[in-house]
Every structure is written in structure tokens, then in C-alpha cells.
Amino acid sequence: MSAERFEVVVVGAGPAGSAAARTLAAAGRNVCIIDKAVFPREKLCGGLITLRSKKIFERAFEGEWKSELFLSSTRVAFFSDGKELAEAPPYHNSKLFFTMRIDFDNYLLELAHQAGAHLKLGQAVSKLDTKEMVIQLASGADISFDFLIGADGVNSQVAKSIFGYSFDPDTIGFGLEVEVPRENLPKQTDCVEIDFAAARWGYGWIFPKKSTFTIGVGGIHKLNPNLRESLDRYLQHKGLSVDEFKVKGQYIPFGDYRKTPGSGRILLCGDAAGTVDPITGEGIAYAMQGGEAAARAIISSMENKCDNALDLYLIEYKNIAKPIKQATFWRKLIFPAIVQKPFAWAFADASTLQKGYLDILAGDRDYNSLYVLFGIQVKKAIKKLFSTILRKLSF
Fold first, then answer.
1. Can you spell out the DSSP letters for 240-300?
2. Which end of the chain is more exposed for a tag (fewer CB within 10 A), N or C?
3. 327 pLDDT above the threshold of 70
4. Is the distance from CB of 60 to CB of 288 less than 8 angstroms?
């Protein structure tokens, strides 16, 4: 039996894969999405959709922003080991959206399908031949292609086929989450909570949803061998126990992005490329942006009849990876245990940095701006330190 043929095959139907497939299909290209899951499907994720994400969605999908999929909040509070440091003052650009990935991802996939992308769902890839450019499905069917986009997550089969591994175990992150029904936390507001001391080289989060609160912790995997205990301790701050809920776990590429996202006619995007911000945890925006960029690189390569898709993709990919690279540097000033207490003390009234954090989430700033903001905050911290010393001496 001859192989079914497509110009482009996308493995993975999450935000990255759907953005890639939708872009290709809208340009008239013959594209197929393959995913081992049947959609709608569950996905571990806080479901944070920033204003940056919204802008990328509107450009890449040209679809309706369905407000019923989201709960929005303009309030963000920062904590350290359960102790509130500060609540950032809300302002017009600080709106954050929260969604259940089972609904959001399904909507994106529908938009890709409506644009003309072919779907092969519930069909796992059993073999990938990168020389012959053929995929064999678990059903035994063969699919050949000219280009391949790996958008199949942190455990990417596509990445493993070209690099020999999906991720670096020394740098990969890991997260645990529970969905807590709202009735379990009747006094909890829709204020987003970020706890910088809930895990080693990571943080904890409480994200409001329409019917639940997503509560999780995440950090560098090898530094958090007892992450379930960390989650339990974090839940105890709210009078809850980890044993009350179903715990979901997933590797997270916290800043562990690939310098070269692919090989030849095979491109990687989203978690398969490791494009997740290690400070904000934002990944959906980079996934959609990467999927769209990979697709446009392939379209241009095909139109110009040049075998340079990876080179074209790298141009935009460097822009995608730039803030992640910057965040990887800045987390060295936030996450080490030795700076946790000084950081918490200084951040408690660091309104400049708090607003900068929200600006980064909104896409109005990049991490380069933190050099100036950090300098301003250091001056404030020194002034605060001297005031504290003088106050103690006066007694």
C-alpha cells in the first residue's frame, strides 16, 4: 500500500501545531496534523493567556476571541513561602486571561481544520524515517511529506529522531498541578498568586478559572526530588491537602530552549523546541508564535524553490528565543536559595519591578528593560535598609 502524501506534516495538535497548520492551510498548502490524542483532551498547564498571547492568536489564527473560554483578572499578588510580599497595582495593560486547555486547544485545532488542515487524531507515531521523510502510524499506515514540523511537546519524538534526545535531564523543569473546585476555597478571589519560594529554582502559582483554581508548583527537576511534598506544603497555606485532589505532572522546559530548532526540512516549535519563559512560565504565546514562524518559513522556502526553511525560521526564532535567554539570566538573581530572603525583603515594596513584571507579561517590555528597573530598585532597597537601621538605632 502506497503512502499517503502531504506537503507538510505537523506532529502535535497543541497551540504550536495548530498555529503552524492553520498558517499553512490558509496559504493553500496541503498539510496534515497528527496527534496521538483525541481532542478535546486534558493538558497540564496553568492556562495563562497573556495580552502577548492574545495578539499572537489574533494574527496567527484570525479567529474570534471567544470570551466564554476565559476568565480575566487584573490583579497579581506576589508571595514567598506563603507570606504575601505585595499586590501589584492593577493598570490597563495588566489584564491576564485564564483558560482550560481542554477547551482552548480544541478551539485552535478547529480553526486549523476550518482553514483546510487535514486531521489524524488518536493516531500515535510508531516510526519516523527522517531520511525517507516517511511517518508510520501505529495503525500501520504510512504518510510521506516534504516538510515536517515537530510540535509534539517536551517529550518530542521528532526532536529525538534528529538529536537523539527530547530534552536535557540536567536542565529540564517539572511541574505538578491540581484543579481545586471553587467551593473548596470560598474566600479565594480572582487575584493571581505567584510564590517565588514554593519550589527550588521555580515557583508556585494559583490561577483562577471559571469553575476552579489551578494550583501548582514547578522548578528544575533534579533540584526538586520531593516536589509532591512542596505542592502539599503550598496547598496547606490554603488549608488544603494534596491527597484531596488528582495530581497531574509534566516536564516543563524552563528556559531549556534549543539553539537550533530543527535540521534540514524538519523544524521544531513550542515545547518541542523548549520555548518556555523560566520566570513567568509563559509558553502558549511562544508556541503559537513559533508554529506560525515555522509555517511561514516553509511557505517561503516552497514558493522560492529553495531548501532554506530552517535558515528562514532561524531569523524569527532568534526573536522568539531572545526573551527566554534573557529570563534564563535573570532567574539567577531570583531563584538561588541564598538570595531568597533578601529578594523577598526588597521585592515587598518594589513597585517598579512589580510593574515591570506585568509589562513583560503584557509584551510591553522585554527583559533588557529590567537593568534600568533593577538599578532603580537597588537604590530604593538601599534607602529602605538605611531607614530600617536608623529606626532600630533610635530605639
1. --GGGS--EEEEE-BS---SS-EETTEEE-GGGTT-B-TTT---HHHHHHHHHHHHHHHHH
2. C
3. yes
4. yes
Distance linking the first and last C-alpha atoms of the chain: 89
Q: Any idea of the CA torsion for 86, 89, 93, 96, to the nearest 10 degrees?
A: 50
174 touches 223 (CB < 8 A): no
Residue range 179-215, pLDDT digits in tens: 999 999 999 999 999 998 999 998 999 999 999 999 9
**DSSP label at residue 23:** H
What domains does the chain contain, in order, with CATH numbers? 4-69+99-168+255-329 (3.50.50.60), 173-252 (3.30.9.10), 332-393 (no CATH)
How many residues does the structure list for the chain? 395
> Which region among 30-39, 123-132, 221-230, 331-340 has the lowest average model confidence (pLDDT)?
331-340
Are the C-beta atoms of residues 140 and 259 closer than 8 Å to each other? no
State the chain's mean pLDDT as an integer: 88
